[in-house]
Write a structure and sequence with these properties.
CATH class of the largest domain: Alpha Beta
Number of helices: 14
Structural class: alpha/beta
CATH topology of the largest domain: Rossmann fold
CATH architecture of the largest domain: 3-Layer(aba) Sandwich
Number of domains: 3
Shape: elongated
Helix content: 40-55%
Oligomer: single chain
């Protein structure tokens, strides 16, 4: 709202009420949508990491211009049509390791609540019935209209009306709260005291957020929602409740593909399914989104996705190394320099995340630590206590980033352990030809060996 960073303050009750705009379920969500959903995930996880309890509500828009239009094209009942994409959404967020919200209210389950809010707005003089039978919000009646999007109320076309859900600032007019039925709606309508019709898009979030949260501490969304959606949410909510709607607004910037806006006509429009069909790891996409600050534009390329995959693989490889070294290596003298570096990294990490969720800076501090520890490991100057502290820290911050491999590698069989031991003996005897035969035989089974100053490490090939 104020276009600047502010200190997040909460009252004595340490429960953050978080509302984020969810999917309009008329198609599969695209990777631009998921950039925003991943941002919500990091926001919530970090709040929980620093000790807050979070109550997270995310709406499911299952009735609007798009769902009606496309369900009619498919000749499907609205509920059946939208359920297909609701199921796909939940499957996708599970694949991307996005924590589910606590409540996912559907718009169609709250029609009566919407009617009640609209009636209240009409009673208070903020809404009126148009000559088309629809009910509109009068923007001139709300003196603060435009405060989020920085629109000047004098320049708005008060009295003129707009019925579509989405429109630009240049078309700002009185917007529809309740849309009277038209033939294009087919059999999608509700019979209510407002007449035969259905709700406008904007009223849905106002009703569902107030029903489940009353007031909102943090409201999240993409920058494309600032106007008209969030601007209209503020107007409806504050006029009906007569109190402040949201304490803090946070908006995630756009995702572009190869430097251009996503478009089916340009052939650069991708859903998560498209990425998976190309055999890319969804965790790499998760990391890619975290590696750019949420308020900066993210340029998606398959090259950047490859780099993200390499980074995630290296991170997991380092964790496997730490696990192995804690069990296998003989200890050395305490490395006080490394121990101090861990403490400094924790401070840098926390400061970066506290500074408007600066994930790139936070991750940079972590990878600087990993680089220093790797150098110490190669020089055999990393003691077990330090390695344990590094491992513990990385697993703690994984509660936020969630990029660690879920499945631990299978243990070696007795035969495989025997082969590795035999190879070690052959290497000591300088019989490298026979040792290499064993290495290749294990590789054919998907077991990769790595010789280190502390001994041989192994991992399962993906």
């Amino acid at each position: 709202m104020k276009r600047k960073k502010q200190v997040f303050k909460l009252g004595h009750i340490k429960i953050v009420k978080l509302y984020t705009c969810g999917p309009t379920v008329y198609n599969y969500a695209h990777i631009g949508n998921f950039r925003a959903y991943l941002f919500y995930d990091i926001l919530r996880r970090y709040l929980e990491y620093i000790g807050y309890e979070v109550k997270h509500v995310m709406n499911l828009t299952d009735v609007d211009d798009k769902t009606i239009r496309d369900s009619q094209k498919e000749n499907m009942a609205l509920k059946d049509f939208t359920q297909k994409y609701i199921d796909a959404f939940f499957n996708d967020i599970k694949i991307l390791r996005i924590k589910p919200a606590h409540i996912y209210p559907k718009a169609t389950d709250h029609i009566n609540d919407m009617v009640d809010m609209i009636k209240k707005l009409m009673l208070r003089g903020y809404a009126y019935r148009g000559d088309d039978g629809s009910v509109y919000f009068s923007i001139k009646k709300f003196k603060n209209y435009g405060k989020l999007s920085k629109l000047k109320i004098k320049k708005l076309k008060a009295g003129a009306r707009v019925s579509q859900d989405e429109y630009t600032k240049q078309e700002a007019k009185d917007f529809a709260l309740w849309k009277a039925w038209i033939p294009e709606d087919g059999n999608i309508f509700w019979i209510t005291p407002l007449g035969k019709g259905r709700p406008g898009w904007h009223i849905e979030c106002s009703v569902m957020s107030q029903k489940y949260l009353q007031s909102i501490n943090i409201h999240g969304g993409g920058v494309d929602l600032i106007f008209p959606h969030h601007e209209n949410e503020i107007a409806q909510s504050e006029c009906s409740s007569e109190k402040k709607f949201v304490d803090y607004w946070v908006h995630c910037n756009h995702l572009y593909v190869d430097g251009k806006k996503m478009s089916k006509s340009l052939g650069n429009f991708y859903t998560l399914r498209d990425i998976l069909e190309k055999n890319y790891d969804p965790v790499a996409f998760r990391y890619l989104c975290l590696s750019t600050h949420y308020r900066s534009q993210l340029n998606f390329t398959f090259g950047s996705l490859e780099k993200a995959k390499t980074t995630v693989d290296n991170f997991n490889e380092f964790l496997r190394k730490l696990e192995w070294l804690q069990k296998e290596k003989s200890d050395v003298r305490p490395n006080h320099i490394l121990h101090k570096l861990i403490k400094n990294t924790k401070e840098k990490f926390r400061n970066a995340m506290d500074n408007d969720l600066n994930t790139p800076q936070a991750l940079a501090s972590v990878f600087n630590l990993i680089k220093a520890v790797n150098i110490a490991i190669d020089k055999n100057t990393a003691d077990k206590r330090t390695l344990q502290a590094v491992y513990k820290f990385l697993m703690e911050i994984n509660d936020i980033f969630d990029i660690v491999e879920k499945e631990s590698a299978e243990e070696l069989t007795a035969e495989e352990k025997g082969l590795i031991e035999k190879r070690e003996q052959l290497r000591k005897e300088k019989n490298f030809e026979e040792a290499d035969k064993i290495r290749n035989a294990l590789k054919n089974r998907g077991i990769i060996l790595e010789d280190t100053p502390q001994g041989v490490m192994w991992k399962r090939e993906k």
